[in-house]
Amino acid sequence: MKRLLAAFGVLALTASAAQAETIRILMETVPDTRYIQDLLPQFTAETGIEVEIEAISYIDMHSKLVPQLLAPQGSYDAIVVDFYWVGEFSKAGWLMPLDDLIAQDGVDTGAYVPAMMDLVGKVDDVTLMLPFYNYSMAVIYRTDLIEDPAEQAAFETKYGIPLQVPQTWDEYWKQVEFFTRDNDGDGERDLYGTVIQGQRGDCISMQWSNFLYSQGGQYNDENWNPTLNSPEGVAAMDAYREAVLKYSPPGSESFCFDEAFNVMAQGRAYSFVTFNILYASFEDPESSTVAGKVGITPNPGGGLNGAWGWAIPNSSPDKDAAWTFIKWVESYEIAKARAMAGGAPTQTAIFNDPDVVAARPYYPVLGDILAGAQPFPVFTYTTELVEEMGRELNLAATGEKGSQEALDDAAAAFHKLLVKDGKLEE
Amino acid sequence: MAHAATALARRDRRFGLMLSAPGLAVLLAVVAFPLVFIIFTSFYDYTLLNPTHDTFNGIDNYREALDDAYLPAAIWTTLKFVAASVIIEFIIGMTVALALNSITRFKDFYYLILLAPLLVNPVVVGLLWRMLLHTELGIVNYLLNSFGLPSVNWLGDADTAFWTVVMVDIWHQVSFMAILLLAGLASLPREPYEAARMDGASALSCFIHITLPLMRPVIIVAVLLRLIFALKTFDIIFIMTKGGPGTATDLVSYFIYRAAFFGLDIGRAAAMSVALLVFVIALTTYLYRYMRSLR
Amino acid sequence: MADIQLTGVSKIYGGNVTAVDSIDLEIRDGEFMVLLGPSGCGKSTTLRMISGLEEISGGELRIGGRLMNDVDPADRDLAIVFQNYALYPHMTVGSNLAFGLKLRKVPKPEIEARIRRTADMLGIGELLHRKPRELSGGQQQRVAVGRALVREPVAFLLDEPLSNLDAKLRAAMRTELIKLHHELGTTIVHVTHDQVEAMTMGERICIMRNGKIVQLGAPLEVYRNPVDTFVAGFLASPPMNLIDARLSEAGATVELGAEVSLAIPEGHRAALASHHNKAVVFGIRPEDIYAEPMDGAMAELDVTVVALEALGPETVLISRLPGGKEIATRMGRNFHARVGSAQRLYVDMNAMHAFNPDGGRAIAMLRA
Hints:
Number of helices of chain B: 12
Shape of chain A: globular
Shape of chain B: flat
CATH class of the largest domain in chain A: Alpha Beta
Helix content of chain A: 40-55%
CATH class of the domain at 71-249 in chain B: Mainly Alpha
CATH architecture of the largest domain in chain A: 3-Layer(aba) Sandwich
CATH superfamily of the domain at 71-249 in chain B: MetI-like
Distance between the termini of chain A: 79 Å
Structural class of chain A: alpha/beta
CATH topology of the domain at 71-249 in chain B: MetI-like fold
Structural class of chain B: mainly alpha
Number of helices of chain A: 20
Oligomer: heterotrimer
CATH superfamily of the largest domain in chain A: Periplasmic binding protein-like II
Distance between the termini of chain B: 42 Å
């Protein structure tokens, strides 16, 4: 009997020792997450650590993360942080500084595009994250329409300028107008110049930012004074409203990027101002009918810079395993594999790696997009700003408020939040 | 003899308490504690960035919440939404219940169809309908077009969006009302209807003079329950419109959510929640008293 | 005022369940007819077919000579009083009474007059503003009757209206209904399973069983000459004693087993000729057995006392025949005997009944 018990004991011990470590990460359901999930077996083989990725849609992430970050010990070992939560998470002190680990393991953060490190790397000189992927926004357009000689001829006749990849806003807007048409004469438009994702909140804020930048506007000056209601802002809003009324499908005031994506992917639109990462999906015959017929180019005036970063929350149950994972996933070899699969890189070298360029010829363009990307105001209350501004923008996009009035109200809300954050005086 | 009986009764009672204690404790923890916490927190400056009860705010949270320029509109929209969806659900539910009450075959099959939407997760309901109602690619507009009708801007036009959300809520919840009313109808006595037949009453007359009065307690319960749930509608707004276009579908529940999870201001969200709770309690008490006065 | 005629009327459910099997019944104008029978005999169904609440599967129904098979219940000019009153719960008593009249567009003054008359007749004048749930059972019942009265129909249909009342109230209502009938003279069809109601209220009773009419006639007639053992056993409580017996060869005596032999009066012997020397079912009512010899054809019977039921006005003696069969006898109120003791009883053989053991029909009508 005693020997039996002893045997059981040994068995139990070895079993628990042999049991794999598991780390859990909360991520968004985007292609870049999928590319990582495909590579996970490699990680487990190398390190013996199992990785459970919980992938949910963007809208649910913030509210799911916050309780886990607040708790003394949360469910997630590592997390990904959207750039505009950075201010909030860092102010709340939820993220573990990585400088010591970086120094100890000799990780070279210089490998990253500097703009990436600024956005999702360092905050006030403390490294809290390693950049994961960027989703800066750009213009995705139909190459077959631009390269068609008949279209080129007609366009030049009408506007007096050649039909080419748009370099300026003025050019782009003329193209948008040109390509909005009723092809079968039934009184309904069949092709739209651009697709608006005007849904109140995050969706409209992201897309409209590009319109603002293309007019030469900015959200705020160096002293944090809001400038979005400048004449440039109003011009941007007017153009946005024009698009809603004339150039975009009806109902786009309530689209978010998946609905808008589908319109473009079904071949019903000429262009779409959106996240660069969607380009790979447009090129995928399984989700798009226009594969091989799309191109991507920087938004005139600069596109919205956006990115996600890897971070270890202070509430992480297993910080060591989390760091092991982050090191692995951002190693050149794995980052390159992700890029080959279609992921959006954040390390400079990958943009120019010959294999990557061969597989993804548009990556140099991505490099340009990234280089010209514009910042979005990141501070403690960015999330709330996006909500309030999103409401005002949507009111203007639906015509319920005038552009100036809506932007004034948005600027006032922005101002109030800046005061709350201590960045501005009353 | 009597002495032993009371001792036994006492022991029984104690045993009963012992058995129900764990359950009661859980109930207390799950219901009472958050309630007390929220009421307590509504008077403090409690944010997710600084989750402490250090700063006593008094009624500042309430005042700040009421100051919000968009709140009155949200309250009005919520009341409109609740009234529209409950009234329409009642009419449809009663019609369905009356119809189901008089059929005898295939009842199980009809129940299944009726209950199916109710069983679907509200988030899924929202996602499903957003897909169906896509103006360009959704099947609803496609069907409309194939009958020669113009497409409808379901979620992009402010007025339409409000009714779209009401419609989706009705699709989701109407069977709840129907089932409750059906249960009530099934328990009605048969004879008054026969007497009415002898008297020569029409179906409408029977409905107004016999069915409705006899059903009054059931109707009140059903409407009350539905009202309370409708006031808390959140998922379909969050999934389908985020309160837009503009502020057309801004409901109070979404307001509270935003304050808590975007604004990170739990104190303010708590204040709004408490106000909503007070309103719901007042409404429930009024309706309950009215119901009792009918006895 | 009208007569009601049913010719070959049947009710068949679901293609094979026959609730009423081709009955012929004539209810005379102004008559108080009672439909009596055990549960499931079809009496209620028959009533409902007359009212129109049930469709007639076969045969003809005529009221006042007119064919009514397909006429809407509301147009037959009948009024029905239900077992559980079926008052409109949310209307006042006054509105309950007026409802049917309003639907028929009777002019308002007429409605008020009728309600007043009815209320006076039934003594419910003070209840007109109350709601049904505020009334006692007896009051609700009277309102139900009132609702029928107000309609001034050609016939009243009463579907076990007294069943839900307690014994005392039932007796009081019985009398009131009889008085009403005298006052109004309207045809009444009254359905009940209570033979006391049938005997006291009906001008004629129609006994039904398994969807058929077994016997139809005035109460006393049916009582004196039941057409079979079922009717014999149904009316009166305690019921007629039915004993398996045998007639002697010449039909002079009836043998109750080996030990008991009762002499049959001359007058009956011929009537029973068909069953001389054969098995019969001997029937004798409890009140026709005495503790002392009376005038008439008395036969002696020795029994053993089993039980005594002292009811007050009389005592019922349950005793056992030598053969083991138990019989009931009505004794005077002062009768007393010890359980288990021997008792000599005297049977009035003029009041005897004889039934065919096969099927139970009376062999002959012995009491003309």
